[in-house]
């Protein structure tokens, strides 16, 4: 009867129809069944081939079972919507993935939201010619639909929406990159996904966990995250070796234990191993024996850990599975893991009653051993080996193994327990010595540093967006700079007079204080005379001292973009030459005052290649070496100011000085060839200024662009000077510095 | 002689002897050698000096040093009164006159030029010139100078001059071993040893983090505060958070770790 209602002639549908109906009848109501068939019929008649119908028939019942039968209509409507909006190719992926997606969503409201997100993405990314009607299908839609189940397993729906929005925003006009993004292949896609993930991330808590390990266990090692996303089948287990402690990159709150506590539980267990376990020779043990040794040794470690920190028991108990003891009666299944899990639970939880006498005997033997103190790994191995011998069953050799509720996920894989005398022949170890050599070679060469970039339109950072490569500026001819300084000797002489007044006078007397550290006798006597003479005495008879030290670190950041090679207006020198003069004079000035300072230049060629040249480091002297680097500066490329400021701040932050000043010398607005929106880099630079301010760095811009008024105030607020007559830069720059630090 | 009496220690302070420090101090006092006591904050430096003053039966004048302190705060100064000016002895001068033990607590907090005034009192001269007054005070035979400082600051600015350092015999203090500290906390506050041992365990957790987010671990003094709160009826975990964790750090990560340590120790 239903077959007639479906009214379709596809042979493929005939083949699967009975099976599908069987499932549908089991989970759908009478009305639901009618709706199911009606909607399937619609899809079959749509003229897009048999596949949408087939997939719908297969997937729809389980979706309806999870979020309700209204979804049956929604699915059909949305598939139809796709079909009429040039995206018919995405119908099949949509229907194929919808069941897996629904499993993550749990409610009808969320299901509808999901569809809205997809609809929104489709509308925004489908191209239109001349704005008349949509003609090009969305390039990334099919890929997005294929990735959705995986994305939703890691992200909340809100996170999923953010991730999708990000892709639409940045790759809408680049089909190739859009596909890369939505198929989760580009670095951005993964980075944004990391940012949006739910749960407790290791990177966010590394310091806390480091402190945990050090504080509670007097232990410390590298904490290395590994990712769980890319390994669906085999969930990796925490472990440690000589390279560090490996932990999953994220832990969700689970079984009433918060993510951070799950990390702590895993660390506590490993720290316990590192403290109390010793490796054993295991060549002669069978795999089953090893598993048993692990269980008993883990139980010993947890026992000792709980003895030291009783509060951890609560966490361990919550995380340790409660095996179902009735399943011991199962036939035709290898129950070895279940027996061990029961023992393991009982060894952790004294309240847990073991039905099986033999297992209970071993648990009691464990507790008896632990009564006498720490015991040892070999003692546990003894118990474990006899456990295996006593509880062995015929069924243990069967391939059908019982796994439910036997995995204790805070425990590591115990690779540190084993010593093999015979060299192993498995792949993991065979090529280890070769890997090692490759690693050593990799370490050469300075890796790029990545910085976030602020996106003002969406009000958040693009994670690790800009790569900054740093290098030492190559040397040139130092006498060039000396000649420049000689040329400006008159200015220098004038500056020198101002500088002498700036030089720190360490202790200064502050007189005429009502409260002070010492009596100022001259004033006191004068006051006394006033007093005796009947006049009102001046009460300010004390004096005190204050120290007048100068503790300033200055970072001078030079824009080395291509425009510097232009001739300055009203001068026969290029801006670069004038900058060199100005910078040399400024460097000489700062050197005279005695403040510590660094000089660096930057330019950029897209976000992947921001170059940062060190000309003078904080610890270097103002000498020929530095001058020669200054002489060899060459302009090229563009101005990505925010990244350069962040990188310079990275070094300036590390300086121990009361006042930190960053001077930025530039001849134009921030811009780069991969950015169309001219506000973007301006806003990013403004954000960088705010960040610097939070780190206690005062930033100040010296701008040579006469038209700079339009943007420079947006970036630097009031901290800028525009120099109209570029040829006066050499004398202006030191003056700016002096007035800033006076 | 009421002025002197106010400096006397009336009751025996509780002090847990750790090694041979009492005997050594007595020997130093017998020779009137100036003594320096070093150690982290709250480990019992001041208590030790107080205890020794009581044991030797000498008055104790304590000066808490600070950055604004000047030489005249130690030595004395002229004050104005109706008839002109009047000289007022500072604590150091008073101690030298009455034969007290003068204890300059946290001396590195004072500026280096200030501390130079103690030099003539700390060598064979044992005199204190009051140059403004034009008087040379001969130290009383019982007078002794004791200074304390915390080398943990590890700062160039906060160190003693060599010329000051090399005038003292020195004791180095540290937090006591877990067993001894448990005893101290229990005796000082009257809580049971099991609870005291748990507090000490938390204290050690924090001491392990010194230099990794904490400038200084939880001192014995703070442990006794926590114990006092618990004794007064405050719930143990709350007392620990209040007395042990919140005072020493504003760093959220460290605070979180120490809070966790409290939960781990108090099941």
Which characteristics define this entry?
heterodimer, A: 742 residues, alpha/beta, Rossmann fold, 4 domains, three-stranded mixed sheet, extended, B: 267 residues, two-stranded antiparallel ribbon, 16% strand
Describe the protein.
The complex is a heterodimer of chains A (742) and B (267). With 742 residues, chain A is an alpha/beta fold. Chain A has four domains: 195 residues, no CATH class; 229 residues, no CATH class; 197 residues, von Willebrand factor, type A domain (Rossmann fold, 3-Layer(aba) Sandwich), CATH 3.40.50.410; 44 residues, no CATH class. Helices cover 52% and strands 14% of the residues of chain A. Chain A is built from 29 helices and 20 strands. In chain A, helix 3 packs antiparallel against helix 4, helix 4 packs antiparallel against helix 5 and helix 4 runs parallel beside helix 6. Chain A is extended, with a radius of gyration of 36 Å. The termini of chain A are far apart. About 1% of the residues of chain A have low confidence. With 267 residues, chain B is of the alpha/beta class. Chain B has two domains: 171 residues, Rossmann fold; 88 residues. Chain B is built from twelve helices and nine strands. In chain B, strands 2-5-8-1-9 form a five-stranded parallel sheet, with helices on both faces. Chain B has a two-stranded antiparallel ribbon with strand order 3-4. In chain B, strands 6-7 form a two-stranded antiparallel sheet. In chain B, a hairpin with a 2-residue loop joins strand 3 and strand 4. The mean pLDDT of chain B is 87. At the A-B interface, helix 12, helix 13, helix 15 and strand 13 of A face strand 3, helix 9 and helix 12 of B.
């Amino acid at each position: 009867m239903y077959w007639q209602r479906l009214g379709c002639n596809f042979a493929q549908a005939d083949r699967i129809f009975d099976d599908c109906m069987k499932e549908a009848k089991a989970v759908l109501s009478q009305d639901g069944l009618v709706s199911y068939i009606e909607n399937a019929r619609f899809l079959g008649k749509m003229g897009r081939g048999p596949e949408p119908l087939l997939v719908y028939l297969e997937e729809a019942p389980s979706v309806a079972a999870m979020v309700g039968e209204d979804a049956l209509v929604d699915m059909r409507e949305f598939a139809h919507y796709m079909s009429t909006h040039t995206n018919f190719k995405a119908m099949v992926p949509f229907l194929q993935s919808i069941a897996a997606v629904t499993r993550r969503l749990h409610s009808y409201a969320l299901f509808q939201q999901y569809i809205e997100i997809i609809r929104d993405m489709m509308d925004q990314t489908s191209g239109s010619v001349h704005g008349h009607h949509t003609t090009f299908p969305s390039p990334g839609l099919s890929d997005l639909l294929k990735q959705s189940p995986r994305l939703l397993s890691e992200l909340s729906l809100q996170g999923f929406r953010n991730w999708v929005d990000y892709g639409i925003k940045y790759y809408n006009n680049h089909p190739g990159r859009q596909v890369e993004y939505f198929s989760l292949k580009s670095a951005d896609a993964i980075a944004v996904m990391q940012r949006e993930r739910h749960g407790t991330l290791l990177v966010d808590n590394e310091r806390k966990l480091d402190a945990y390990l050090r504080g509670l266990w007097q232990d410390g090692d590298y904490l290395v995250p590994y990712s769980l996303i890319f390994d669906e089948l085999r969930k990796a287990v925490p472990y440690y070796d000589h390279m560090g402690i490996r932990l999953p990159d994220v832990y969700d709150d689970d079984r009433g234990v918060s993510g951070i506590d799950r990390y702590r539980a895993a660390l506590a267990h490993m720290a316990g191993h590192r403290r109390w376990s010793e490796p054993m020779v295991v060549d002669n043990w069978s795999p089953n024996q090893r598993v048993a040794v692990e269980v008993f040794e883990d139980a010993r470690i947890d026992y000792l850990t709980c003895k030291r920190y009783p509060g951890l028991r609560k966490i361990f108990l919550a995380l340790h599975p409660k095996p179902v003891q009735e399943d011991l009666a199962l036939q035709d299944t290898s129950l070895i893991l279940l027996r061990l899990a029961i023992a393991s639970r009982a060894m952790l939880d004294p309240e847990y009653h073991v039905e099986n006498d033999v297992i209970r005997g071993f648990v009691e033997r464990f507790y008896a051993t632990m009564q006498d103190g720490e015991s040892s790994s070999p003692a546990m191995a003894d118990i474990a080996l006899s456990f295996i011998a006593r509880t062995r069953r015929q069924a243990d050799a069967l391939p059908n193994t019982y796994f439910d509720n036997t995995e204790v996920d805070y425990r590591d894989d115990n690779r540190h327990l084993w010593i093999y005398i015979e060299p192993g022949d498995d792949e993991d170890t065979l090529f280890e010595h070769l890997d090692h050599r490759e690693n050593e070679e990799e370490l050469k060469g300075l890796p790029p540093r990545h910085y976030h970039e602020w996106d003002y339109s969406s009000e958040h950072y693009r994670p690790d967006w800009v790569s900054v490569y740093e290098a030492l500026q190559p040397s040139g001819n130092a006498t060039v700079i000396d000649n420049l300084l000689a040329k400006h000797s008159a200015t220098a002489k004038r500056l020198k007079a101002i500088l002498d007044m700036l030089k720190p006078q360490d202790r200064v007397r502050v007189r005429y204080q009502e409260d002070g550290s010492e009596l100022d006798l001259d004033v006191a006597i004068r006051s006394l005379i006033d007093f005796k003479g009947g006049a009102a005495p001046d009460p300010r008879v004390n004096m005190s001292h204050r120290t007048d030290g100068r503790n300033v670190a200055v970072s001078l950041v030079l824009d080395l973009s291509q425009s510097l090679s232009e001739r300055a207006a009203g001068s026969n020198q290029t801006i670069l030459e004038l900058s060199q003069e100005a910078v040399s004079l400024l460097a000489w000035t700062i050197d005279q005052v005695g403040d510590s300072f660094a000089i660096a230049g930057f330019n950029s060629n897209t976000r992947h290649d921001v170059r940062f040249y060190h000309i003078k480091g904080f610890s270097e002297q103002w000498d020929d070496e530095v001058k020669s680097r200054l002489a060899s500066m060459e302009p090229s490329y563009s101005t990505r100011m925010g990244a350069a400021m962040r990188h310079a701040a990275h070094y300036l932050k590390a300086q121990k000085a009361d006042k930190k000043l960053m001077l930025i010398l530039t001849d134009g607005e921030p811009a780069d060839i991969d950015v169309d929106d001219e506000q973007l880099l301006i806003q990013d630079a403004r954000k960088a200024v705010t960040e610097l301010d939070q780190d206690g760095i005062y930033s100040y811009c010296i701008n040579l662009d006469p038209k700079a008024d339009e943007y420079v105030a947006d970036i630097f607020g009031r901290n800028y000077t525009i120099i109209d007559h570029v040829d006066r830069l050499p004398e202006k720059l030191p003056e700016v510095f002096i007035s800033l630090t006076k | 002689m009421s002025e002197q009496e106010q400096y006397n220690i009336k009751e025996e302070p509780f002090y847990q002897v750790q090694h041979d420090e009492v005997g050594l101090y007595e020997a130093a006092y017998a020779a009137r050698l100036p003594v320096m006591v070093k150690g982290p904050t709250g480990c019992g430096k001041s208590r030790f000096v107080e205890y020794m003053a009581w044991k030797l039966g000498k008055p104790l004048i304590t000066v808490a040093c600070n950055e604004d302190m000047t030489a005249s705060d130690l030595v004395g100064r002229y004050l104005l009164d109706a008839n002109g000016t009047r000289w007022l002895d500072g604590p150091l001068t008073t101690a030298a006159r009455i034969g007290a033990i003068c204890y300059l607590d946290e001396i590195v907090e004072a500026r280096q030029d200030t501390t130079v005034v103690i030099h003539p009192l700390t060598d064979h001269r044992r005199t204190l010139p009051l140059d403004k007054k034009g008087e040379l005070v001969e130290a009383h035979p019982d007078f002794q100078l004791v200074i304390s400082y915390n080398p943990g600051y590890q700062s160039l600015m906060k160190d003693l001059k060599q010329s000051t350092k090399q005038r003292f015999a020195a004791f180095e203090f540290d937090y006591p071993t877990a067993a001894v500290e448990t005893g101290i906390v229990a005796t000082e506050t009257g809580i049971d040893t099991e609870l005291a041992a748990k507090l000490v365990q938390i204290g050690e957790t924090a001491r392990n983090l010194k230099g990794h987010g904490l400038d200084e671990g939880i001192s014995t003094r703070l442990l006794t505060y926590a114990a006092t709160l618990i004794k007064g009826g405050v719930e143990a975990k709350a007392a620990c958070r209040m007395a042990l964790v919140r005072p020493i750090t504003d760093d959220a990560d460290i605070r979180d770790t120490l809070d966790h340590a409290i939960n781990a120790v108090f099941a």
